[in-house]
Amino acid sequence: MASSVFFTHSHYSSSPSSSLFRHHRHLVAPPTSLRFSSSHVAPVAAMTTDSSAKVIDGKSVAKQIRDEISAEVSRMRESIGVIPGLAVILVGDRKDSATYVRNKKKACESVGINSLEANLPEDSTEEEVLNYISGYNDDPSVHGILVQLPLPSHMNEQNILNAVRIEKDVDGFHPLNIGRLAMRGRDPLFVPCTPKGCIELLHRYGVPIKGKRAVVIGRSNIVGMPAALLLQREDATVSVVHSRTSNPEEVTRQADIIISAVGQPNMVRENWIKPGAVIIDVGINPVEDPNSARGYKLVGDVCYEEAIKVASAVTPVPGGVGPMTIAMLLQNTLISAKRVHNFE
Ligand SMILES: Nc1nc(=O)c2c([nH]1)NC[C@@H]1CN(c3ccc(C(=O)N[C@@H](CCC(=O)O)C(=O)O)cc3)C=[N+]21
Protein backbone atom coordinates (compact mmCIF):
# COMPACT_ATOMS: atom_id res chain seq x y z
CA MET A 1 0.00 0.00 0.00
CA ALA A 2 2.95 2.29 0.49
CA SER A 3 3.04 3.40 -3.11
CA SER A 4 -0.62 4.23 -3.31
CA VAL A 5 -1.49 7.59 -4.71
CA PHE A 6 -4.25 7.83 -2.13
CA PHE A 7 -1.74 8.12 0.63
CA THR A 8 0.30 10.83 -0.97
CA HIS A 9 -2.63 13.04 -1.76
CA SER A 10 -2.48 15.17 1.30
CA HIS A 11 0.25 17.59 2.09
CA TYR A 12 -0.18 16.34 5.63
CA SER A 13 1.03 12.93 4.59
CA SER A 14 4.54 12.21 5.60
CA SER A 15 6.46 10.22 3.04
CA PRO A 16 6.61 10.11 -0.72
CA SER A 17 5.78 6.78 -2.25
CA SER A 18 8.59 5.09 -4.07
CA SER A 19 12.28 5.61 -4.20
CA LEU A 20 12.80 5.46 -7.95
CA PHE A 21 10.24 8.11 -8.53
CA ARG A 22 11.61 10.30 -5.79
CA HIS A 23 14.12 12.12 -7.93
CA HIS A 24 11.24 13.64 -9.87
CA ARG A 25 9.85 15.33 -6.82
CA HIS A 26 11.65 18.55 -7.42
CA LEU A 27 10.05 19.15 -10.75
CA VAL A 28 7.86 22.16 -10.52
CA ALA A 29 4.68 22.67 -12.41
CA PRO A 30 5.00 24.92 -15.44
CA PRO A 31 4.07 28.50 -14.54
CA THR A 32 0.73 28.76 -16.25
CA SER A 33 -1.99 27.23 -14.20
CA LEU A 34 -4.65 25.98 -16.53
CA ARG A 35 -8.26 26.42 -15.65
CA PHE A 36 -10.68 23.84 -16.86
CA SER A 37 -13.81 25.76 -17.51
CA SER A 38 -16.45 23.76 -19.30
CA SER A 39 -16.08 26.16 -22.23
CA HIS A 40 -12.89 24.62 -23.48
CA VAL A 41 -13.98 21.07 -23.02
CA ALA A 42 -14.81 19.62 -26.40
CA PRO A 43 -17.94 17.55 -26.78
CA VAL A 44 -17.23 13.83 -26.82
CA ALA A 45 -18.27 13.44 -30.46
CA ALA A 46 -15.69 15.97 -31.63
CA MET A 47 -12.80 13.94 -30.29
CA THR A 48 -12.07 11.95 -33.41
CA THR A 49 -12.32 14.87 -35.82
CA ASP A 50 -9.76 17.16 -34.20
CA SER A 51 -6.07 16.32 -33.99
CA SER A 52 -5.19 18.42 -30.93
CA ALA A 53 -5.40 16.81 -27.50
CA LYS A 54 -8.73 16.75 -25.78
CA VAL A 55 -9.54 17.23 -22.17
CA ILE A 56 -11.33 14.21 -20.76
CA ASP A 57 -13.86 15.91 -18.55
CA GLY A 58 -14.28 13.57 -15.59
CA LYS A 59 -16.25 16.12 -13.68
CA SER A 60 -19.00 16.35 -16.25
CA VAL A 61 -19.05 12.61 -16.97
CA ALA A 62 -19.35 12.03 -13.21
CA LYS A 63 -22.28 14.43 -13.09
CA GLN A 64 -23.95 12.56 -15.95
CA ILE A 65 -23.46 9.26 -14.11
CA ARG A 66 -24.85 10.72 -10.88
CA ASP A 67 -27.97 11.77 -12.81
CA GLU A 68 -28.36 8.22 -14.13
CA ILE A 69 -27.93 6.82 -10.62
CA SER A 70 -30.38 9.32 -9.22
CA ALA A 71 -33.06 8.18 -11.68
CA GLU A 72 -32.45 4.53 -10.77
CA VAL A 73 -32.57 5.26 -7.04
CA SER A 74 -35.98 6.95 -7.50
CA ARG A 75 -37.29 4.11 -9.63
CA MET A 76 -36.25 1.61 -6.99
CA ARG A 77 -37.75 3.60 -4.14
CA GLU A 78 -41.02 4.05 -6.00
CA SER A 79 -41.40 0.44 -7.08
CA ILE A 80 -40.15 -1.54 -4.05
CA GLY A 81 -39.71 1.11 -1.36
CA VAL A 82 -36.01 0.44 -0.87
CA ILE A 83 -33.41 3.19 -0.51
CA PRO A 84 -29.77 2.19 -1.00
CA GLY A 85 -27.55 2.89 2.02
CA LEU A 86 -23.82 3.51 2.33
CA ALA A 87 -21.94 3.38 5.64
CA VAL A 88 -18.59 5.13 5.89
CA ILE A 89 -16.20 4.48 8.74
CA LEU A 90 -13.64 7.19 9.40
CA VAL A 91 -10.98 6.64 12.04
CA GLY A 92 -8.93 9.60 13.23
CA ASP A 93 -8.92 13.20 12.09
CA ARG A 94 -6.78 13.48 8.98
CA LYS A 95 -8.01 16.57 7.22
CA ASP A 96 -7.93 15.08 3.74
CA SER A 97 -9.85 11.99 4.86
CA ALA A 98 -12.47 14.15 6.56
CA THR A 99 -12.86 16.13 3.32
CA TYR A 100 -13.27 12.98 1.23
CA VAL A 101 -15.84 11.58 3.63
CA ARG A 102 -17.76 14.85 3.55
CA ASN A 103 -17.71 14.79 -0.26
CA LYS A 104 -18.93 11.21 -0.35
CA LYS A 105 -21.77 12.10 1.96
CA LYS A 106 -22.75 15.08 -0.19
CA ALA A 107 -22.64 12.88 -3.29
CA CYS A 108 -24.93 10.33 -1.61
CA GLU A 109 -27.41 13.06 -0.77
CA SER A 110 -27.34 14.37 -4.33
CA VAL A 111 -28.57 11.02 -5.72
CA GLY A 112 -30.90 10.02 -2.87
CA ILE A 113 -28.70 7.34 -1.31
CA ASN A 114 -28.81 7.16 2.50
CA SER A 115 -25.49 7.72 4.16
CA LEU A 116 -24.42 6.62 7.61
CA GLU A 117 -21.19 7.71 9.16
CA ALA A 118 -19.12 6.37 12.01
CA ASN A 119 -16.47 8.76 13.24
CA LEU A 120 -14.03 7.04 15.55
CA PRO A 121 -11.16 8.68 17.42
CA GLU A 122 -7.58 8.14 16.27
CA ASP A 123 -6.77 6.03 19.35
CA SER A 124 -9.64 3.57 18.83
CA THR A 125 -8.78 -0.09 18.96
CA GLU A 126 -8.99 -2.42 16.02
CA GLU A 127 -11.70 -4.26 17.90
CA GLU A 128 -13.86 -1.14 18.05
CA VAL A 129 -13.57 -0.71 14.28
CA LEU A 130 -14.40 -4.40 13.80
CA ASN A 131 -17.49 -3.94 15.98
CA TYR A 132 -18.76 -1.17 13.72
CA ILE A 133 -18.11 -3.28 10.67
CA SER A 134 -20.03 -6.20 12.09
CA GLY A 135 -22.93 -3.92 13.01
CA TYR A 136 -23.10 -2.66 9.42
CA ASN A 137 -22.61 -6.19 8.07
CA ASP A 138 -25.80 -7.18 9.89
CA ASP A 139 -27.80 -4.03 9.14
CA PRO A 140 -30.16 -4.64 6.19
CA SER A 141 -30.47 -0.90 5.48
CA VAL A 142 -26.73 -0.78 4.71
CA HIS A 143 -25.82 -2.00 1.22
CA GLY A 144 -22.27 -0.71 1.11
CA ILE A 145 -19.51 -0.34 3.71
CA LEU A 146 -16.45 1.82 3.15
CA VAL A 147 -13.58 2.00 5.59
CA GLN A 148 -11.75 5.21 4.76
CA LEU A 149 -8.05 4.62 4.15
CA PRO A 150 -5.42 5.11 5.37
CA LEU A 151 -6.15 3.74 8.82
CA PRO A 152 -4.06 4.75 11.84
CA SER A 153 -0.77 2.87 11.82
CA HIS A 154 -1.55 0.82 14.94
CA MET A 155 -4.32 -0.96 13.08
CA ASN A 156 -4.03 -3.98 10.84
CA GLU A 157 -5.59 -2.92 7.57
CA GLN A 158 -5.83 -6.50 6.30
CA ASN A 159 -7.86 -7.68 9.29
CA ILE A 160 -10.21 -4.76 8.90
CA LEU A 161 -10.75 -5.04 5.15
CA ASN A 162 -11.24 -8.81 5.48
CA ALA A 163 -14.08 -8.20 7.95
CA VAL A 164 -16.31 -6.36 5.48
CA ARG A 165 -18.96 -8.73 4.07
CA ILE A 166 -18.07 -9.21 0.42
CA GLU A 167 -21.69 -8.50 -0.54
CA LYS A 168 -21.21 -5.00 0.93
CA ASP A 169 -17.63 -4.42 -0.18
CA VAL A 170 -18.40 -1.45 -2.45
CA ASP A 171 -14.72 -0.45 -2.47
CA GLY A 172 -13.91 -3.84 -4.00
CA PHE A 173 -10.88 -4.20 -1.68
CA HIS A 174 -11.78 -7.59 -0.16
CA PRO A 175 -9.25 -10.21 -1.29
CA LEU A 176 -12.04 -12.41 -2.63
CA ASN A 177 -13.29 -9.61 -4.87
CA ILE A 178 -9.75 -8.84 -6.06
CA GLY A 179 -9.08 -12.56 -6.61
CA ARG A 180 -12.17 -12.90 -8.76
CA LEU A 181 -11.20 -9.78 -10.70
CA ALA A 182 -7.88 -11.46 -11.51
CA MET A 183 -9.37 -14.75 -12.74
CA ARG A 184 -10.66 -15.42 -16.20
CA GLY A 185 -14.23 -16.67 -16.27
CA ARG A 186 -15.02 -15.18 -12.87
CA ASP A 187 -16.56 -11.90 -11.83
CA PRO A 188 -16.10 -9.89 -8.66
CA LEU A 189 -19.16 -8.58 -6.84
CA PHE A 190 -17.60 -5.10 -6.98
CA VAL A 191 -14.83 -3.49 -8.99
CA PRO A 192 -12.64 -0.94 -7.12
CA CYS A 193 -13.99 2.56 -7.71
CA THR A 194 -10.96 4.45 -9.03
CA PRO A 195 -9.88 1.89 -11.66
CA LYS A 196 -13.51 1.40 -12.64
CA GLY A 197 -13.82 5.16 -13.11
CA CYS A 198 -10.73 5.18 -15.37
CA ILE A 199 -12.17 2.49 -17.65
CA GLU A 200 -15.56 4.19 -17.64
CA LEU A 201 -13.92 7.39 -18.89
CA LEU A 202 -12.23 5.47 -21.72
CA HIS A 203 -15.55 3.89 -22.68
CA ARG A 204 -17.53 7.10 -22.56
CA TYR A 205 -14.93 8.87 -24.71
CA GLY A 206 -14.99 6.05 -27.24
CA VAL A 207 -11.33 5.10 -26.73
CA PRO A 208 -10.71 1.61 -28.12
CA ILE A 209 -8.96 -0.71 -25.62
CA LYS A 210 -9.06 -4.14 -27.25
CA GLY A 211 -5.68 -5.09 -28.71
CA LYS A 212 -4.09 -1.80 -27.62
CA ARG A 213 -0.93 -1.43 -25.58
CA ALA A 214 -1.64 -0.09 -22.13
CA VAL A 215 0.86 0.91 -19.48
CA VAL A 216 -0.15 1.28 -15.84
CA ILE A 217 2.31 3.27 -13.78
CA GLY A 218 2.15 2.19 -10.13
CA ARG A 219 1.19 -1.15 -8.58
CA SER A 220 -0.83 -0.29 -5.49
CA ASN A 221 -3.55 -2.64 -4.28
CA ILE A 222 -6.22 0.01 -4.66
CA VAL A 223 -5.41 1.54 -8.05
CA GLY A 224 -2.47 0.27 -10.12
CA MET A 225 -2.97 -3.46 -9.70
CA PRO A 226 -6.74 -3.53 -10.21
CA ALA A 227 -6.42 -1.05 -13.11
CA ALA A 228 -4.01 -3.43 -14.84
CA LEU A 229 -6.40 -6.35 -14.26
CA LEU A 230 -9.33 -4.39 -15.68
CA LEU A 231 -7.40 -3.34 -18.78
CA GLN A 232 -6.45 -6.97 -19.32
CA ARG A 233 -10.09 -7.98 -19.03
CA GLU A 234 -10.77 -5.38 -21.74
CA ASP A 235 -8.27 -7.22 -23.98
CA ALA A 236 -5.48 -4.66 -23.81
CA THR A 237 -1.85 -5.80 -23.73
CA VAL A 238 -0.78 -4.52 -20.34
CA SER A 239 2.57 -3.58 -18.81
CA VAL A 240 3.01 -2.36 -15.27
CA VAL A 241 5.73 0.20 -14.67
CA HIS A 242 6.81 0.60 -11.05
CA SER A 243 9.53 1.90 -8.78
CA ARG A 244 12.01 -0.82 -9.82
CA THR A 245 11.37 -0.64 -13.55
CA SER A 246 14.45 0.29 -15.53
CA ASN A 247 13.82 2.85 -18.20
CA PRO A 248 10.19 3.55 -17.28
CA GLU A 249 9.95 6.28 -19.90
CA GLU A 250 10.89 3.90 -22.69
CA VAL A 251 8.28 1.34 -21.61
CA THR A 252 5.63 3.99 -21.15
CA ARG A 253 6.38 5.46 -24.58
CA GLN A 254 5.04 2.25 -26.17
CA ALA A 255 1.60 2.81 -24.73
CA ASP A 256 -1.58 3.73 -26.56
CA ILE A 257 -3.21 4.14 -23.15
CA ILE A 258 -1.43 5.31 -19.99
CA ILE A 259 -2.95 5.09 -16.52
CA SER A 260 -0.71 6.72 -13.96
CA ALA A 261 -1.23 6.18 -10.22
CA VAL A 262 1.95 6.82 -8.29
CA GLY A 263 1.55 10.11 -6.45
CA GLN A 264 4.55 11.95 -7.89
CA PRO A 265 3.80 15.41 -9.21
CA ASN A 266 4.56 15.93 -12.92
CA MET A 267 6.61 12.75 -13.19
CA VAL A 268 5.39 11.74 -16.64
CA ARG A 269 6.96 14.13 -19.13
CA GLU A 270 6.64 14.65 -22.85
CA ASN A 271 9.32 12.06 -23.67
CA TRP A 272 7.31 9.33 -21.88
CA ILE A 273 4.36 9.77 -24.20
CA LYS A 274 3.74 8.33 -27.65
CA PRO A 275 2.09 10.91 -29.90
CA GLY A 276 -1.66 10.28 -29.91
CA ALA A 277 -1.72 8.30 -26.65
CA VAL A 278 -4.65 8.64 -24.25
CA ILE A 279 -3.68 9.52 -20.69
CA ILE A 280 -5.63 8.87 -17.50
CA ASP A 281 -3.94 10.66 -14.61
CA VAL A 282 -4.96 9.30 -11.21
CA GLY A 283 -2.41 11.30 -9.20
CA ILE A 284 -3.69 14.04 -6.92
CA ASN A 285 -0.58 15.76 -5.61
CA PRO A 286 -0.47 18.98 -3.63
CA VAL A 287 2.32 21.32 -4.72
CA GLU A 288 3.12 24.70 -3.20
CA ASP A 289 1.33 27.56 -4.86
CA PRO A 290 1.63 31.01 -3.27
CA ASN A 291 -1.08 32.32 -5.62
CA SER A 292 -3.67 30.01 -4.15
CA ALA A 293 -5.61 30.83 -1.00
CA ARG A 294 -4.83 27.39 0.42
CA GLY A 295 -1.11 27.84 -0.28
CA TYR A 296 -1.05 24.79 -2.54
CA LYS A 297 -2.67 23.46 -5.66
CA LEU A 298 -3.32 19.96 -6.92
CA VAL A 299 -1.42 18.51 -9.85
CA GLY A 300 -1.37 15.05 -11.38
CA ASP A 301 1.42 12.53 -11.95
CA VAL A 302 1.54 13.72 -15.53
CA CYS A 303 2.93 17.07 -16.60
CA TYR A 304 -0.31 18.33 -18.05
CA GLU A 305 1.03 21.17 -20.15
CA GLU A 306 3.46 18.82 -21.91
CA ALA A 307 0.99 15.95 -22.23
CA ILE A 308 -1.69 18.06 -23.84
CA LYS A 309 0.75 18.79 -26.70
CA VAL A 310 1.47 15.16 -27.63
CA ALA A 311 -1.40 13.06 -26.36
CA SER A 312 -4.76 12.74 -28.10
CA ALA A 313 -6.66 13.04 -24.81
CA VAL A 314 -5.76 13.73 -21.18
CA THR A 315 -7.62 13.84 -17.85
CA PRO A 316 -7.05 17.04 -15.87
CA VAL A 317 -6.33 17.20 -12.12
CA PRO A 318 -8.59 18.17 -10.45
CA GLY A 319 -11.74 17.41 -12.45
CA GLY A 320 -10.60 14.12 -13.99
CA VAL A 321 -10.53 10.79 -12.21
CA GLY A 322 -11.35 12.11 -8.69
CA PRO A 323 -15.03 12.87 -9.31
CA MET A 324 -15.35 9.55 -11.18
CA THR A 325 -14.17 7.64 -8.10
CA ILE A 326 -17.07 9.01 -6.12
CA ALA A 327 -19.56 8.37 -8.93
CA MET A 328 -18.41 4.73 -9.07
CA LEU A 329 -18.83 4.39 -5.31
CA LEU A 330 -22.46 5.49 -5.67
CA GLN A 331 -22.88 3.12 -8.59
CA ASN A 332 -21.48 0.19 -6.58
CA THR A 333 -23.83 1.02 -3.70
CA LEU A 334 -26.80 1.01 -6.09
CA ILE A 335 -25.64 -2.27 -7.66
CA SER A 336 -25.42 -3.80 -4.19
CA ALA A 337 -28.93 -2.72 -3.19
CA LYS A 338 -30.36 -3.94 -6.50
CA ARG A 339 -28.62 -7.29 -6.12
CA VAL A 340 -29.79 -7.98 -2.58
CA HIS A 341 -33.38 -7.06 -3.45
CA ASN A 342 -33.38 -8.77 -6.84
CA PHE A 343 -34.35 -5.50 -8.48
CA GLU A 344 -33.58 -5.17 -12.18
N1 LIG B 1 -11.65 3.16 1.38
C1 LIG B 1 -11.30 4.18 0.59
N2 LIG B 1 -11.87 4.30 -0.62
C2 LIG B 1 -11.53 5.33 -1.44
O1 LIG B 1 -12.06 5.44 -2.57
C3 LIG B 1 -10.58 6.30 -0.98
C4 LIG B 1 -10.04 6.13 0.30
N3 LIG B 1 -10.39 5.06 1.04
N4 LIG B 1 -9.12 7.00 0.78
C5 LIG B 1 -8.77 8.20 0.07
C6 LIG B 1 -8.90 8.01 -1.42
C7 LIG B 1 -8.92 9.28 -2.23
N5 LIG B 1 -10.18 9.28 -2.93
C8 LIG B 1 -10.63 10.35 -3.69
C9 LIG B 1 -11.94 10.51 -4.04
C10 LIG B 1 -12.39 11.62 -4.74
C11 LIG B 1 -11.53 12.64 -5.08
C12 LIG B 1 -12.05 13.84 -5.79
O2 LIG B 1 -13.24 13.98 -6.01
N6 LIG B 1 -11.20 14.80 -6.17
C13 LIG B 1 -11.64 16.01 -6.85
C14 LIG B 1 -11.44 17.22 -5.99
C15 LIG B 1 -10.03 17.43 -5.51
C16 LIG B 1 -9.91 18.56 -4.45
O3 LIG B 1 -10.05 19.74 -4.83
O4 LIG B 1 -9.63 18.26 -3.27
C17 LIG B 1 -10.94 16.14 -8.19
O5 LIG B 1 -9.95 15.44 -8.42
O6 LIG B 1 -11.42 16.90 -9.01
C18 LIG B 1 -10.20 12.51 -4.76
C19 LIG B 1 -9.76 11.38 -4.07
C20 LIG B 1 -10.87 8.17 -2.58
N7 LIG B 1 -10.19 7.39 -1.74
How do the strands of the widest beta sheet line up side by side?
Answer: 1-11-8-7-5-6
Unreliable spans are 1-51
**How many strands appear in the DSSP assignment?**
11
Total number of helices:
11
CATH class of the largest domain: Alpha Beta
- The secondary structure category is alpha/beta
CATH topology of the largest domain: Rossmann fold
Q: How far from one another are the termini?
A: 36 Å
If you had to describe this structure to a student in words, what would you say it looks like?
One of its GO terms (biological process) is one-carbon metabolic process. Residues 56-171 form the Tetrahydrofolate dehydrogenase/cyclohydrolase catalytic domain. Homodimer. The chain is built from 11 helices and 11 strands. It has helices at residues 19-22, 58-80, 95-111, 126-138, 157-163, 175-182, 193-204, 224-233, 248-252, 304-310, 321-340, and strands spanning 54-55, 85-91, 114-120, 144-147, 213-217, 237-241, 257-260, 278-281, 285-288, 296-299, 313-314. The chain is α/β, with parallel strands linked by helices. Helix 3 crosses helix 11, helix 7 (193-204) packs across helix 8 (224-233) and helix 7 packs across helix 11.
